[in-house]
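Re: the 451-residue chain
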Amino acid sequence: MFKTVLESIKVFKNIEMKIIAAGLNHKSAPIDIREKLAFDFDQNIDALGKLKDSFPEGEFVLLSTCNRVELYSVGESTGGIDLEQIAGFFSEFHKVELNDFRDYLYVHTNEDAVRHLLTVASGLDSMVLGEDQILGQVKESYRIACTAKSTGKIINRLFHCAFAASKKVHTNTHVSDGRISIAGVAVELAIQLFKEISKAKTVVIGAGEMGELLVKHLSHAGCSDITIVNRSYNRGETIAKRRGIKANKWNELTNLLTDVDIVIASASTQEHLFKKTSFQKINKNRKKKPLLIIDISVPRNFEPVIGEMENVHLYSVDELSEVAKKNRKARENDISEGMQIIYESVREFMDWFGAREVGPMIGKMKEQFGQISQKELERFFVGARQQAVCKEVLEAMVNRVVSKLLHCVISNVDTVTKKHGPIEATKLVDSIVRQAEKISSEHDDKGDKNS
C-alpha cells in the first residue's frame, strides 16, 4: 500500500519544476494530531530514503519539530503532488488513519511555499515570535536530508536562501530583542502557577538544547534546586557542572518524581515516558503533594490523562500559546519589518527559480546558430570553391556576424526578463531554439536530397 501511495507521487512529470510545502503546525492542528505524525531522526532518514527510491529525480526535506511537521519537495510536474498524496504518505508511514488528520493539513506551492519556509526559518511563524531554535531545527532537517541524499540544486538553493533571510531578519529588525523561547515561555508559565519558584524542587527531563535552555531560564528565575535527568548521564552531568545544578541517572527518575514540585519535560521519545498506570503509584507516594508538570515534548513524555489525577497539574506545549500571544501582539511592527525582508528574499529566489533554465537554453541557442552557420558554409564551399583562398576569411566573417546577432538576441532576452520576468524570457529562448532546430533539420533534409 505504501508503495502504491508513492507511485501516485510520480505525477511529477515534465513541463516545469514545482516547489511544494505541505504539512501541519500548531496553528492548524492540536498536539494529539501533531505527535502522531512527528518524525524522529531515524524515521526522517527512512522516509526520505523511501521517497528517493520511488522518485529518484525528486528533492525532499522533512521538518519535524514540537510545533510542525512539514514536507518540502521539488519535482517536475503538470499538476504535481497534491495535498491528498502528501496526506497518504504521512498516513502510510505512521499507520495513522487519513481521516484523523486530513482536515488539519495545508499545502503551499512555488512562491507561497518559498515564502512559508522563509517565514518559518526566521521565527515569524513560530508560536514564540522570533525564537532562534527553529532556525537550528531547519538547518538540522536540511542536514539530515543531505545525509539521506534527498536534496538537489533547487532545494539546496532554497534552504540556503532561508538561512540567509533569517539572518537578515534577526540582524536588521528588533524581532530578536527580548525574545523568549518555548523554554522561556514554559518557565514563565511555571512562575505564574507556582508562587515561590525560588523554593521549588524542580526536575528537568532531557538534556538536549531545549533542556539546557530550561535550566538557564529556571536559574534566571531564581530557582536554586534544579536536577537534570537524561538517558545519557554524561550529557546531563556536563550541563549540571556548567550550570551549577544537580544531575541524576535515568533509572532514578521515578523516585525523584515522588518528592519534587515542578517537572518540565523535553525528552525526545516516540512513546510516553509515563502512562496513567505507571504514574498512579508515583502520585500515591507523593501523599497529596501538588505537582506541576509542563510537558513541551512532541510526542509528549506524559500521557495526557495523568493531568486528571488528584493534585497533578499537567500542561502541554499548546497551553503555552496564551503566554506567547502577549509577546506577539506587542511586536506587530517587528513582524511587519521582518516580512518586508522575507518578501524581498522570496522575489530574489523566484527570479533565480524562473531563470534557472535560461542559461543552458542560451547555450543551446548558440549551438544551434553555430550549426546553421557551419552548414551554410559547407553548402557554399563545394566543388571548385573548396579550394578558395577566401575560405578562412569568409568563415571568420560569418562567425563574427553570428556572434553579433546572438548578442542582439541575448540583449532582447535580458529586456524581456526585466519587463516580463524570467519565465517569459525562458519561453522566448525556447521558441528561438525550436526555430533554429527546425532550420537546422531543413538543411539536413536538403543535404540528403542533394547527395
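The chain has a mean pLDDT of 87.
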